[in-house]
Amino acid sequence: MFQQALGELNGSTADIEASALISTDGLMIASALPHGMDEDRIGAMSAALLALGDRTARELARGGLSRVLIQGERGYVIMSSAGPEAVLTVLAKPNAKLGLIFLDIKRAAETLSKLV
Predict the structure, then answer these.
(1) In angstroms, how far is CA 71 from the centroid of its own chain?
(2) Which pTM does this prediction carry?
(3) How far apart are CA 22 and CA 42, in angstroms?
(4) How many CB atoms lie within 10 A of CB 47?
(5) Spatial CB neighbours of 1, under 8 Å, sequence gap ≥ 6
(6) I need a labelling partner for 87 at 20 to 30 A (CA). Which of 30, 43, 66, 73 fits?
(7) Which domains does the chain have, with CATH numbers?
(8) Which helix or strand (DSSP H or E) is residue 76 part of?
C-alpha cells in the first residue's frame, strides 16, 4: 500500500521525479527512487533534516513545521512529515510548479500517515 501511494504521488505530475517514505529514525519504509540512489543515506539525511527543521521552526518561534525545502541547480528536495513516525521525501524538477507539488505532497502525506 505504501508503494501504491508513492506511485500515485509520482504519477500525479511530471514534475515529481521520485519519492520515499522514511521512518523518523532514518529507516526506509518504501521508496520510488531512481536506480543508483543510496536508500540508507537518503533515509538518514531526510530524518535528520526534518528533525533539524522542526527544531529550528520551534526555536525561532515560527510555529509547527510544514516542510523542509532544498533548492539545488538540478531541482528540489522537499521533506514533509507523514504523521509522527515518518517523513515523506520528494525529488522535483528545477522548473516544477511548487504550489501544485505542495498540494500533492500534503494529500499523499495524509494518506501515508494513516498507513504508518
Answers:
(1) 13
(2) 0.92
(3) 9
(4) 20
(5) 115
(6) 73
(7) 2-115 (3.30.450.30)
(8) strand 75-81
Nearest CA to 99 among 5, 6, 3, 13? 13
Among 98, 59, 105, smallest CA distance to 79 is for: 105
Q: What nine digits make up the cell of 63?
A: 510555529
* Positive or negative: CA dihedral 60, 21, 45, 15: negative
User: Which of these, 16, 38, 4, lies nearest to 105 by C-alpha position?
Assistant: 16
Q: Where are the alpha helices (DSSP H) in the chain?
A: 2-11, 39-59, 98-115
Q: Which amino acid is at 68?
A: V
CA triplet 46, 76, 110: central angle to 5 degrees?
60
CA Rg value for the chain: 13
Q: How long a stretch of residues is the chain?
A: 116
Query: Residue 41: what pLDDT?
Result: 94
Q: Could you read off the pLDDT of 67-101 as tens digits, one per residue?
A: 999 999 999 999 999 999 999 999 999 999 999 99
